[in-house]
Write a structure and sequence with these properties.
CATH class: Alpha Beta
Shape: globular
CATH superfamily: Isochorismatase-like
CATH topology: Rossmann fold
Radius of gyration: 16 Å
Number of domains: 1
Number of helices: 2
Structural class: alpha/beta
Helix content: 10-25%
Number of strands: 6
Strand content: 15-25%
Low-confidence stretches: 1-15, 128-132
Oligomer: single chain
Length: 143
């Protein structure tokens, strides 16, 4: 059965190999570094992080509705850095998009989300087919 799903923010595209709820098999929503330090009151505030977070909330809702797995990637910097310090409120995932028990959280220690986290073959076999999925982050740039 093929259904239309959201790809990007505004486009729809038809895809194959869907489960009973319409999710592409081996597809996942990967949420990267949506942590408190990137918001006001954090130590590394980004440009309009709440706007990006709102889109991520919509992607989470859609993913839960169609059975798409959700994977959170959480960044911890080394002691001595000024943000994303393990054990601090700033390093916690935003409570507005908090993971549920069925979601997976992968901890990373480098800017690269896949360096020394999980092997590429595991990503491809377990979560994605050739990185087929939806990626979301609050990192935006000022125009």
């Amino acid at each position: 059965m093929t259904k239309k799903i959201l790809i990007g923010r505004n486009g729809l595209v038809e895809r194959k190999n869907r489960n009973e709820k319409g999710c592409i098999m081996k597809e996942a929503l990967i949420i990267i570094d949506v942590q408190n330090d990137y918001f006001p009151e954090g130590t590394c505030e980004l440009y309009h992080p709440y706007d990006a977070e709102k889109v991520i909330q919509e992607l989470i809702s859609e993913s839960r509705n169609i059975g798409r797995p959700i994977i959170y990637i959480q960044h911890f910097n080394e002691p001595g850095d000024y943000f994303f310090l393990e054990g601090t409120i700033g390093a916690e995932i935003s409570d507005r998009i908090a993971p549920k028990p069925e979601d997976k959280i992968i901890v990373k220690r480098y800017p690269n989300s896949f360096l020394e986290t999980i092997p590429a073959e595991t990503v491809q076999k377990t979560f994605l087919a050739a990185l087929d999925g939806v990626f979301a982050s609050v990192i935006t740039e000022k125009k």
